[in-house]
Write a structure and sequence with these properties.
globular, 77% helix, 0% strand
Length: 226
């Protein structure tokens, strides 16, 4: 009678079996959530760098500022969703997320301010775009102040997570392309990322006609100053 396979011999088969049962659009657990958050965060850093450049020459780059600002809405919403999901799973006592633990205390303390200022920055920006420069009232002040506060707290957030981001991004690159051993939920994560970017892009393209009043106003101000 042949010898029964040892636990070490059975382990690869068990892993392959579990991977085969994993749906490619969902799953990944805490590692998948961390990868999604890290990739989205990297995209946001790049787009925010572009926004920073436009602010330095806002008169000449107002169209780019408006376009990238609208494009950001998709990835920002995804980032809020991924971090909010981790928050909800941790505080609902999910065992995997409890084992992983929460972010460090300073990052947890500033999280509500980041969420609040994020909503204010983008809501005020969209409203400003739609009402135009002739009827803006205190909206510009609200948008500017909330943006400054948002950048300050978001910078602390990025600095707090920066040490762990390279490892999270490397784990995405190391994923085995074999279907049987691919990280669960990988396809779903990329669909979410591409969907967020496409959603922001579509919104920006749809609202391009509303840029005209702002570009005309910016050109007028620049001409009078010159």
């Amino acid at each position: 009678m042949p010898n029964a396979p040892s636990p070490a011999d059975r382990a690869p088969a068990v892993r392959r079996s579990r991977a085969g049962l994993s749906h490619p659009l969902i799953g990944g657990g805490t590692d998948g959530n961390e990868q999604l958050t890290a990739i989205t965060g990297t995209i946001l850093i790049v787009l925010l760098a572009v926004i920073g450049v436009t602010i330095l020459r806002i008169g000449q780059l107002i169209s780019l500022h408006l376009f990238v600002g609208l494009l950001l809405i998709g990835p920002v919403a995804l980032k809020l969703a991924s971090t909010g999901y981790r928050f909800a799973r941790y505080y609902s006592h999910d065992s995997a997320y409890r084992r992983k633990g929460p972010p460090v205390t300073p990052l947890r303390l500033i999280a509500p301010m980041i969420v609040l200022t994020t909503l204010v920055v983008f809501a005020s920006g969209v409203v400003l775009l739609l009402v135009g420069p002739g009827d803006r009232g205190q909206l510009v002040l609200i948008h500017k102040v909330s943006f400054i506060v948002w950048v300050a707290f978001t910078s602390l957030h990025v600095l707090g997570h920066l040490p762990s981001m390279p490892a999270s991004l490397r784990s995405v690159r190391r994923a085995n392309p074999s279907l049987q051993e691919r990280a669960p939920g990988g396809a779903g994560r990329w669909i979410a990322i591409v969907g967020a970017l496409v959603g922001g892009l579509v919104l920006a393209i749809v609202l391009i006609p509303d840029f005209a009043v702002w570009t005309a106003h910016s050109a007028s101000v620049h001409h009078h100053r010159g």
